[in-house]
Amino acid sequence: MEAVLVREGAVLSYETVADPEPKAGEAIVELKAAAVNRRDLLVRQGVYPFPLPLIPGSDGAGIRRDTGEEVVILPSLSWGPSEAAAGESFEILGGPRNGTYAQLIALPVENLFPKPARLPWEEAAAFPLAALTAYRALFSVGRLTSEECVLVLGAGSGVSAFAVQLASEFGARVLVTSSSQEKIDRALELGAKGGFLYTEGDWAEAAREATGGRGVDLVLDSVGSTWPDSVRALARGGRLVVFGGTGGTEAQLGVRPFYLQWLSLLGTTMGSPTDFRSLLRLVETARWRPVIDSVRPLAEAEAAHTRLVSDADKFGKLVLTCS
């Protein structure tokens, strides 16, 4: 089969490799499309020091070779029995286990779910990791209700686009931040009610003003270094849900203002099979569609990575066709 491998020196190599051999309880999926995530860059850069060579990629959709079913892949491997948190054996597909930048993949059958019938291959491959992350952050962990207001940091990323769509369709009021007015405008088209340029002025104070001085009920923060400002944007009893550190892995919070406002700081990564089943039910009946930035053949994975990190106008998911 053809696949893209990460090799030493952060090199992406498109080459012919041996077909995967399924173990007991696994099935081969003929991949039609895969999606690119920031995690793939971290794997490539060695931030996650997995043994190389390695096929990256967490998202994919294709056809089960043994049954002929059209399936979408749950990237959470070995989640475990608890809904509160993943177990010690938990992994994300695409490191250390070979991922979806390939024509074929062998996976446990419990990670294969029916592809939403209304989505074409590219859209089906685009939503699992990012939409699952957004779903769990909003609902399973963030406990968002339809009467509340949520602030999503960084309009334009795959997770934030799904968060805007999921929360808006649920009935919540959604606000966003971005460095680009164009991305804020795109978020408004997806259902957001307002947005703030974090490059201009105090976005935390702007969020409070937009809520009549009360503050937002929930902030989704994948930046990390923004925690102090995210806390300032919260209403009394608000929740800060964190699922990334793209802007820095260190933050300092004042203890007394935190507990005197009855705030909660919550961490989450990916989601459980139960979360994924709930997400799939929403996807089947939703009015929204995954936002696709661009689609390229598998051999052009390098160009997709370049766009992910360097193109300021990127909005939505980057997808690779595998066959």
Walkthrough of the structure:
The protein is of the alpha/beta class. The protein has helices at 38-45, 121-126, 128-141, 158-170, 181-190, 203-210, 227-233, 255-260, 273-285, 301-310, and strands at 2-7, 11-16, 26-36, 59-64, 70-73, 76-77, 91-92, 104-108, 112-114, 149-152, 173-178, 194-197, 216-221, 234-242, 264-267, 292-297, 317-321. It has two domains: 2-127 and 290-321, Medium-chain alcohol dehydrogenases, catalytic domain (Quinone Oxidoreductase, Chain A, domain 1, Alpha-Beta Complex); 131-267, Rossmann fold (3-Layer(aba) Sandwich). The chain has ten helices and 17 strands. The strands form four sheets. Strands 3, 4, 5, 8, 9, 16 and 17 form a seven-stranded mixed sheet that branches. A hairpin with a 5-residue loop joins strand 4 and strand 5 (70-73).
What is the subunit arrangement here?
A: single chain
| Contiguous runs where pLDDT drops below 50 for at least 5 residues | none
Radius of gyration: 19 Å
- Based on Cα principal axes, name the global outline: globular
Helix content: 25-40%
Order of helices and strands: EEEHEEEEEEHHEHEHEHEHEHEHEHE
Mean pLDDT over the full residue set: 96
Kindly name the structural category.
alpha/beta
CATH topology of the largest domain: Quinone Oxidoreductase, Chain A, domain 1
Sheet with the most strands, sense and barrel status: 7 strands, mixed
Number of domains: 2
How many runs of DSSP E, i.e. beta strands? 17
Number of helices: 10
Proportion of residues in β-strands: 25-35%
CATH superfamily of the largest domain: Medium-chain alcohol dehydrogenases, catalytic domain
